[in-house]
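Render this sequence as a predicted structure.
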Amino acid sequence: MPEKRIAPLISSLEDFECQLPGYLNEKTTLALLLDYDGTLAAIADNPKNTFMNVDMEKLLNRLAVHPKIFLCIISGRGLRDVQSRVGIKGITYAGNHGLEIESGNGTRHDYALPAELQNHFAPMVKELIDNVQKNGAWIEDKKVTLTYHYRDVPADISEEQKKLAVRIIESHGFRTSQAHEAIEAKPPVNWNKGEAALLILKDRFGDNWADQIKVIFAGDDNTDEDAMRLLQASSKSFRISVDPEIQTYADFRLAQQDVVEDLLKWIRNTYTD
């Protein structure tokens, strides 16, 4: 069974080359699965202000068109939102933690939620807006999931307001999980970024994908741990975190978000045009 542990640190391009010699091979297809917020783009005070920097954007676009690289973005954002942020056509996107998946050719896979849950979503959003969208907090409605952002709530009332938000979400039958100064609300189904990653890899490369390709996954959030757990031993995964004591299913810890740029450079250096 996969277990969490303190992962070895990578903090530079040279570290990738030293700690993963020979993992990549330009003759072997690479499936590159990446989170967006906190991974490709630095966390901002508001998700609307989160963008990739120019260098990251250039690297990602270059890798996206390489014939030996299959690129997929797996995000907690809504599908159309993350597609518009990344802006690369012809690649696979998974939004809402994998509940919505669209391949490069437009084929869709949407997780079928029970009608009762769907009927609870709008009332849950309204109750949250009426009760806890205040003091700087706001609700990010992603139609299938939502995020309660409390980054700007004064410290002396933040905990109480957050607990109320959690109670409201759970009273409507949705699960809560901690994110960066936010609470994620997701339907209580056995589906997450890990399940989505496995489905995407099987659909693209077949049931024996682990014997055919190399896989890299990178993410910065607790929701990304689902993918790191299910891909453990059949990929190389990277958790972005400044915490040296963080327990993770990932193979390596990246010291900060901008090291992801070095990760993409390491891949680019192997998969030369």
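Summary. The two ends are 39 Å apart (CA to CA). The mean pLDDT is 95.
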